[in-house]
Amino acid sequence: MDKTDVLIIGGGAVGVCAAYYLREAGYRVMLVDRGEIGSGASHGNMGLVVPSHSVPLAAPGVVTQGLKWMFRPDSPFYIKPRLDPALIRWLWAFWKASKEDRMRRAIPLIRDLSLQSLTLFSRLDELEGVEFDYHRRGVLALYRTPEGMEEGEEELRLLSSYGLEIDELTPDGLADALPGLELNAQGGLHFRQDAHLTPGKFVRSLAAYLERHGVDVRTGTEVTGFTKEKGRITIAHTTRGDVAAGEVVLTAGSWSAALGRLAGVSLPIQPAKGYSVTIRRPAAWPEQPFMLSESRVAVTPMGDTLRIGGTLELAGMDRSINRRRVAAILDAVPRYLPSFDIGAHEIVETWCGLRPCTPDGLPFLGRVPVIPNLIVAAGHAMIGVSLGPVTGKLVRQILAGERTDIKLDLLAVDRFAA
Ligand SMILES: Cc1cc2nc3c(=O)[nH]c(=O)nc-3n(C[C@H](O)[C@H](O)[C@H](O)COP(=O)(O)OP(=O)(O)OC[C@H]3O[C@@H](n4cnc5c(N)ncnc54)[C@H](O)[C@@H]3O)c2cc1C
């Protein structure tokens, strides 16, 4: 039987980062994925590293806005109507978490995690052979309507009060920031601390680096169950044989709920599907990502491609591509960029991925009290790439029994236990 100090389940942004920091600390690490590295949500996402997204998904007003959008199949948010007890429990917990005081407790934590990740990304970018088109130029938000601009100004006030660096831009300021693009916007914001990267390249080149440095990376290897003794996991059963592991780290994104059930721990994570369309990068396109705010669509340059993506759809573990929703994303573009004809550019990929969402918009990060050698690092929702490096580093600190750089009480794995 194969043996390892640490078995990491799931080769997305969180899993590869955990493997990196554990390997750096001298542990013998095996990283398994049932598909390829990055075959979950970590390949085709928008690649934004975003301290500006420090407001959790569960926030006041989100439920009301969501209800308005819910049943419109081309809106930025959609719930597939169904009687699923896990979804109903999750929605109830989400509603309870969407309160001002809980949001305000979460903001400084997400901010600190994101800011640490930015620093860690800069170091990972210097590793030999690890390349992921990392740029620190901030992210712009474009607003087309007075109501949108008002919402933006509210966000500016909220996030600035937590020390985040944001500039308000006039249409001229936006034109300077996005040279060569004809814009239809009333104004915008520049979230100066944000960054962007090519996420698929990030996870794959870091995994290749790990393999070169002694991590046992096994793709096409699905974990199907666990054997426990005295409450601890002793063996993980996989489609390629059993693995005896001293410690297990669960980083399987949206699949973590099912794996948690196999191990005997409840992890209320709902998958929230989003889509992206990647095209060849138009000539002279500026190296500046931006959001089409009212439509909740992001546009990110990535090397020689340009990616456009968005929507949040609670439709269960379903990875089928709904063409109508993809069309709704693309339809938003000419409303902000009237002379940009997407159809004139070659499509490289149309993709969908499942964001792993907890009811309060905060990830699970910590040991499972009833299974002391199991650490969960999952449920990063819209910001799993952003928080990948800091999560990986914290996993190492948790595993080593060190004091963590950041206080993690709000991320406790059993916080929704009745
Ligand atoms: C449209 C869209 C845009 C987004 N934009 C951004 C963005 O700009 N910035 C940002 O920070 N985040 C963004 N996100 C969110 C981000 O993609 C996720 O939060 C992140 O990828 C989650 O990473 P993960 O490692 O937790 O999970 P995943 O990347 O989903 O990885 C989980 C892995 O576990 C594997 N696995 C599952 N079951 C098993 C098993 N039984 N055995 C072995 N392996 C298993 C899967 O194959 C998968 O590779 C976006 C998401 C979407 C959908």
Question: How is the topology of this model organized?
Answer:
Layout: E1 2-9, H1 13-24, E2 29-32, E3 48-49, H2 62-69, E4 77-79, H3 85-97, H4 100-124, E5 139-143, H5 146-160, E6 166-169, H6 171-177, E7 187-191, E8 195-196, H7 199-212, E9 216-218, E10 223-229, E11 232-238, E12 241-250, H8 256-263, E13 270-280, E14 290-292, E15 297-302, E16 305-314, H9 323-336, E17 347-357, E18 364-368, E19 371-378, H10 388-400
Parallel strand pairs: 1-2, 1-12, 2-9, 4-16, 5-14, 12-19
Antiparallel strand pairs: 3-8, 5-7, 6-7, 10-11, 11-12, 13-16, 13-17, 14-15, 15-16, 18-19
Helix pairs in contact: 1-7, 1-10, 4-10
Bound molecules: flavin-adenine dinucleotide.
Flavin-adenine dinucleotide (FAD) binds near residues 9, 14, 252, 381 and 385.
Total of helices: 10
Helix coverage percent: 25-40%
Rg calc: 21 Å
Distance between the first and last residues' Cα: 38 Å
The secondary-structure element order is: EHEEHEHHEHEHEEHEEEEHEEEEHEEEH
Give the rounded overall mean pLDDT.
96
- Percentage of residues in strands: 25-35%
> Which small-molecule ligands are present, each listed once?
flavin-adenine dinucleotide
Give the low-confidence spans: none
The gross shape turns out to be: globular
* Extended strand count: 19
Q: Strand count, sense and closure of the main sheet?
A: 9 strands, mixed
| Class from helix and strand fractions | alpha/beta
